[in-house]
Amino acid sequence: MERANRTLLTEFILTGIPYPLQLKTFLFAFFLLIYILTQLGNLLILITVLADPQLHARPMYVFLGVLSVIDMGISSVIVPRFTMNFVLGVTPIPFGGCVAQLYFYHFLGSTQCFLYTLMAYDRYLAICWPLRYPVLMTAKLSTLLVAGAWVAGSFHGALQAVLTFRLPYCGPNHVDYFFCDIPAVLRLACADTTGNELVTFVDIGVVVASCFSLILLSYIQIIRAILRIRTADGRRRAFSTCGAHVTVVTVYYVPCAFIYMRPEANSPLDGAAALFPTAITPFLNPLIYTLRNQEVKMALKRMLRGPRTKSEI
């Protein structure tokens, strides 16, 4: 009978985040606008990188185009359902839908983590070894690195999804969160979750700590190289190429560390922190990279201006 009861759970109910009812319409409009702008902004970055020969031939902007794809994916996995809850109320998500949401969130999130590391390594080579950079970071190597990030991210997402949903779930089915994530779902398991929590903490901890350490080491070397530049204009240009990346890495890693790197991840602030990697960061990335990157701004101007006619040339 116990085994039969455990098979009855076919859906979860995402309770969302607490909010004043009088703000329901405002929050729906706000997150809907955030989602639309996220998709449009990242799509614009992707089209710009693909359309501009000066950008898509450089690994740095290939990584930026891939980052835009990931941001659109993470936002689409989480934000539409979360936003519709403000209108439709709390609605159930099928068991398979919950599995898919958890998998794709961790697949895309870990791929993004690896990609940030590759972007830091690319900046390290460009600034510390400028003359050898075209030889060290070739188009073939950048493609292989991006492919490796996708494969590693897929493996990480599959591992987390399998470990989480191999456990029996026999009720209750109310997930005290706005999407299916590991800490919130594990609290509903009808079995001991100590092993899962330990593996999750170690696995995500290794990914986050190793990526962040490599990024930190890269930027230590970058800062040392920049400080050796004699001209103020040269130092300013070198810092400007790294400023956008440092900003998005900070916005990404701090909330993730808060959510997953604590022994007991059950805080009312978890939901607010999770809004950053799922909704806020994907929205901010196009703004940060376009406002702080002169080459992207110039490419956008060239694309919006269209091809020049012979008379203009």
Automatic annotation (TrEMBL):
Mode of membrane association: Multi-pass membrane protein
Superkingdom is Eukaryota
- Name its cellular compartments: Cell membrane
Q: Report the Gene3D superfamilies cross-referenced here.
A: Rhodopsin 7-helix transmembrane proteins
The transmembrane segments are: 26-49, 61-82, 102-121, 133-153, 204-227, 239-260, 272-291
Against InterPro entries, the record matches this protein to: GPCR_Rhodpsn (IPR000276), GPCR_Rhodpsn_7TM (IPR017452), Olfact_rcpt (IPR000725)
Q: Which GO terms describe its cellular component?
A: plasma membrane
GO function terms (MF aspect) = G protein-coupled receptor activity; olfactory receptor activity
Ranges for the G-protein coupled receptors family 1 profile domain? 41-289
Pfam families tied to this protein: 7tm_4
Give the residues annotated as coiled coil.
none
Which protein are we looking at? Olfactory receptor 10G3
Per the UniProt record, the source organism is Fukomys damarensis
